[in-house]
Amino acid sequence: xxxxxxxxRRVKRGWMNLRVTEVNTETPDTLTxxxxxxDDGGRPFDYVxxxxxxxxxxxIVDKPVVRSYTMSSSPLQPDISAxxxxxVEGGLISNWLCDNVQPGxxxxxxxxxxKFCFDPGHDRSHLMMVAGGSGVTPFVSIIxxxxxxxxxxxxxxxxxxxxxxxxxxDLICWKELEEARAxxxxxxxxxxxxxxxxxxxxxxxxxxxxxxxxIRGDYANTTFMTCGPKExxxxxxxxxxxxxxxxxxxxxxxxxx
Length: 257
Known about the structure:
5 helices; globular; six-stranded parallel β-sheet; Elongation Factor Tu (Ef-tu), domain 3; 2 domains; Rossmann fold
């Protein structure tokens, strides 16, 4: 494993108190929570884009509830960390966060941990990311970190993102994705419930045929990552395995609500 995951990175041990300083609306049902250390200010840890924090919630139900959320901020933002949450029907913690957290709220978290990251010591030169809905958030962090340095040591030579949303009203972190496209990242956005092909969007759910068209046979030079609904992740894994990609170059991450 790459030296990026070495144990000597700056980490605040145990449970941290993180104060929310901003709550930013991404879509009508998705919010981004910006946090700093409640005791000392700033960001109390180092991390690799794609890693997550584990949060503990007391008093919502009888027993403490633990959930993990990938950061959508970038390690290049030294003073803050942020995570993005989409309201989910029946989702205990996602709905509580969207309904109750405001600037000044203190959340308890520990970490960061996780290996759903670009590893320059192992991964191939082309990083292909496939996401659905809020599954785009770890890729927003990865893009924020690596888009400014594409082709340089420590970053991929090429990055591509295929992301599915329901409609234009559901474009999570759209500003960041437009900035990524301007920086040279190939961003392909498809809408499953709206036809906006005249505006440059793809139309329909991510499919085997769509992946084949966008990958264009470049399997041997590519590491694949997927995050989001199980259907999208299962489809992506099956597609790349059928093309001969081994498990070492296929990474997946699931979310809880």
